[in-house]
Amino acid sequence: MIAIVGRPNVGKSTLFNRLTKTRKAIVHDMPGVTIDRNYGEVDWYGKSFTVVDTGGFEPVAADKIIVQMREQAQLAIEEAEAIIFLMDGKEGLTSVDMAVADILRKTEKQVYYVINKIDGEKAEEAVYDFYNLGVENIYTISSEHNRGVTDLIDDVASKLPDYNLVEEEGITRLAIIGRPNVGKSSIVNRILGSDRLIVSDLPGTTRDSIDTLFETDGKRYLLIDTAGIRRKSKVSDRLEKYTILKSLDSINRCDIAIIVIDAAEGITEQDVKVAGYAHEKGKGCIIAVNKWDLIEKDNMTVGKYVDKIRISLKYMDYACIVFISALTGQRIMKIIKLADEIVEQRNKRAPTGELNRVVKTATLRHHPPACQGRFVKIYYSSQFLVSPPTFAIFTNYPNDIHFSYERYLENKIREAFGYQGTPIKLKFKARTGRKKIFKK
Ligand code: GDP
Q: Which residue CA neighbors atom 19 of ligand 1 most closely?
């Protein structure tokens, strides 16, 4: 994650737009996750990262700029991997810039001092002023005219840490997600308890690494962003949107999202949005109901609780639910056991013959509804990917399959093959080749 910090009007959002839009990067239009458009994913010659325009989080009152700037800088230092500090070459160096630079100088993270609006000879001269900041390397750019931006981002991207390690075979990547105070760091501490071995002899797992690799029962797991979970940040907790951004970032990198909720509080709107994001990204999902020790129980409690969660997560009835207590340790390792099971489900392949029998029975019992007078037929199906299990379903009208019919087929496939804990994807494709191939 790269944060762009700077006073209002220095050009943060112009730079941001350059990075996220003009390079055809995906600025997610995440259904279900409504957050402001102040972050975006950038794919820069094979390296991908998230850019955040920290200025976009709050309205600015002129007399509060300095306070807000300090907060922005602090937030960036705590949460981002690198910081772009943007200043205005037309206005020259200001006292607020100096104050922010004082804060940024204290971090060991990579800070890029960048002067924007440099688009003429005169402007070039203005740069000298900025050497009063006492930093050696100053970039000059014009976001508006796309001058110097590429060089800057090349440098930024080349110094980003590599996450290649997490792609290693046989490692299950777990992201622990949840609102502040639900117990994430307590859970992490439990999981990494004394009998689990933290693997530290691998590159990327040094003292200050972001993720923690550990081993239990001979299997390896990567807990994503444990550094972020353990670090208590008042600023990012207060700016809840930022917490969501971090969560999305972690979800992108995981196999299984463990969404922790507080038993007393129940599942919140934010949890539902984040779970929806994990669903769309095809990640496995565990809902961990923590602080279960605080709940008074009778033999209906669990059932009622599960029902409530299922209602909130209507389209994710595959999600696993587990009731835990980080305080007492109750069922903590059940999370890992469930993760193992989900990984197995995600890697399962439905045999093609059997799959086609299941789909055929389903379509005979309940025909695909006709669309605009067209008779929709389903010919043939096959599972062509795992993690998440993804199916090609060949039909004469791939664009006319109604959402509810897709759900129906998905349920039938799940009834036959399981796939607990993981989303599955159905891709409707136009039938290709000669008819005979599909006739039997
Ligand atoms: P985080 O912000 O999500 O990392 O939450 P913490 O792990 O810091 O926990 C927040 C508070 O909840 C702390 O005071 C913990 O001691 C407490 N807590 C965490 N898990 C449990 C639990 O299972 N039961 C109870 N009773 N308290 C818990």
A: 183
